[in-house]
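so my prof wants the structure for this chain in the tokens format not the other one, which i didnt know existed until like an hour ago. anyway here's the sequence
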Amino acid sequence: MKLLPIILLTVLGVALAAPAIAGDRPKADEVVVVKSEGKLYLMRESEEIGSFRVTFGADPVGHKQQVGDQKTPEGRYVLDYKNRSSSFYKAIHVSYPNAADRERARKLGVDPGGDIMIHGQRNGLGWLSPLAQLVNWTDGCIALSDSDMDVVWEAVDPGTPITIKP
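here's what i got, hopefully its the right format
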């Protein structure tokens, strides 16, 4: 019977702590992606609040020039909207192409492409994430495991700036 109060206090402590653990993650005020590291960083007031392994387009070196080049853009953009109904597990849109990207493409006589997203795995294939995250497989997007995408989804609001570095 001496254990009963200890057990009850432990259960109560866990129950009271659970909302703080689950719902009190800070919101990111910036996202930084470093392609050479294969990392996405959630930042808050210039401090890292999370980092995640990511993969990119199948030809990741260099800045995206045109549709179909399999490159992930580099530069400063905005995460402008969320798409829960994507073909991939949750998706957050990157505002590529910006004005400079469109002008560069115009001078080259090419379509700059677009529809660049941060997303999880293709719907229904999340179980392949341990293998899929070992290679660059997207058409230029930034891919995470589904569980990591859940964290990023909750931490990022539309309007958050993103910097994608080489």
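also thought this was worth mentioning. The CA atoms of residues 96 and 114 lie 6 Å apart.
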